[in-house]
């Protein structure tokens, strides 16, 4: 785009960034939406206008999830920055797909953890599975989040930016203590970098770093291949195992931080619900895991 168009775009881009921030959008959403705006401008080499042609390009060459993000980004841009009515919503209507999630058996979960070659990843996978957490929720756990007296974990700013408490199995607590003894980070349970972490914290040389999520994702892919598991691995096998063992759907919904039971049901195979003590059931379930721990 020419210099005038570029300057106009930069001004609009900054206004959009400000509006999204003031409206409380998450950093991830802000990054996605502003990136979409820039991609559209790059496509036309001008500020966004000929949207029908651009969405046709997306539908033909990109995934429906990206099309949906682009639509939401442009709708917000028109409403917040241009103060114009959004007239293009009917263009993009992704087909409704109801897919079933692959579910790992308890034996497969134990095999996956046992075949992991690093203690840090072993404990991370056990923690993520047994607490029903998402990747970032596990990585950002701190020592202060673990209550060994009430046997629960405080998950901060989780799904929907909400805090929640989840039950802490005794096996997971022991594993966390064992791993923490190898690094003794003053705050984090899964720190990045190398010990001694006390020196880094004392020097005030920046914010503590957690284990890189890319390393975690790569590790689990390698272990899945080594174990010969051909399913798409995800933590919500935990939800299914709880449901199959008698924990009621409402308790699982609370544990996973879902706003609606409909969301929870997507990750589970429906069985008969029973009113049970979920903490006892979780402990009984995790105790059945067969894990061969690597040396510290």
- CATH architectural grouping of the largest domain: Orthogonal Bundle
Strand order of the largest sheet: 1-2-3
CATH topology of the largest domain: hpI Integrase, Chain A
CATH superfamily (homologous) name of the largest domain: Intergrase catalytic core
Low-confidence stretches: 199-207, 268-276
Q: Which CATH first-tier class of the largest domain would you pick?
A: Mainly Alpha
Give me the Rg, rounded. 23 Å
Overall average residue pLDDT:
76
Main sheet record: 3 strands, antiparallel
What does this structure look like?
The protein is mainly alpha-helical. The protein has two domains: 3-91, DNA polymerase, domain 1, CATH 1.10.150; 106-192 and 209-287, Intergrase catalytic core (hpI Integrase, Chain A). Helix content is 55%, strand content 3%. It contains 14 helices and three strands. α1 (3-22) runs antiparallel to α2. The longest helix is centred in the N-terminal third of the chain and has 20 residues, at 3-22. The model is unreliable at 199-207 and 268-276 (pLDDT under 50).
Give a short synopsis of this structure.
The chain has 296 residues and is mainly alpha-helical. The protein contains 14 helices and three strands.
Describe the secondary structure blueprint for this structure.
Blueprint: H1 3-22, H2 27-44, H3 51-61, H4 64-82, H5 106-114, H6 119-131, H7 135-139, E1 146-147, E2 152-155, E3 164-167, H8 170-183, H9 197-203, H10 213-227, H11 237-244, H12 249-256, H13 261-266, H14 278-287
Antiparallel strand pairs: 1-2, 2-3
Helix pairs in contact: 1-2, 1-4, 2-4, 5-10, 6-8
């Amino acid at each position: 785009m020419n210099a005038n168009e570029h300057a106009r775009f930069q001004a609009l881009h900054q206004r959009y960034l400000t509006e999204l921030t003031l409206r409380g959008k998450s950093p991830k959403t802000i990054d996605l939406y502003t990136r979409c705006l820039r991609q559209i401008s790059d496509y036309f080499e001008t500020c966004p206008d000929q949207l029908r042609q651009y969405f046709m390009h997306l539908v033909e060459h990109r995934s429906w999830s990206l099309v949906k993000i682009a639509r939401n980004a442009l709708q917000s841009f028109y409403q917040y920055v241009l103060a114009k009515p959004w007239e293009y919503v009917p263009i993009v209507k992704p087909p409704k797909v109801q897919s079933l999630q692959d579910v790992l058996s308890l034996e497969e979960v134990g095999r996956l953890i046992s075949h992991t070659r690093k203690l840090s990843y072993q404990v991370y996978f056990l923690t993520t599975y047994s607490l029903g957490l998402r990747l970032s929720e596990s990585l950002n756990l701190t020592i202060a989040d673990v209550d060994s007296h009430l046997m629960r974990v405080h998950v901060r700013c989780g799904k929907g930016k909400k805090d929640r408490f989840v039950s802490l199995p005794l096996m997971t607590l022991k594993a966390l203590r064992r791993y923490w003894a190898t690094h003794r980070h003053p705050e984090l349970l899964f720190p990045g970098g190398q010990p001694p972490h006390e020196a880094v914290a004392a020097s005030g040389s920046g914010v503590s770093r957690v284990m890189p999520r890319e390393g975690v994702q790569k590790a689990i892919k390698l272990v899945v291949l080594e174990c010969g598991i051909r399913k798409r691995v995800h933590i919500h096998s935990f939800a299914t195992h709880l449901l199959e063992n008698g924990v009621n759907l409402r308790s699982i919904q609370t544990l996973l931080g879902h706003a609606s039971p409909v969301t929870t049901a997507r990750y589970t195979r429906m069985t008969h619900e029973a009113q049970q003590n979920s903490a006892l059931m979780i402990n009984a379930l995790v105790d059945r895991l067969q894990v061969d721990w690597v040396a510290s």
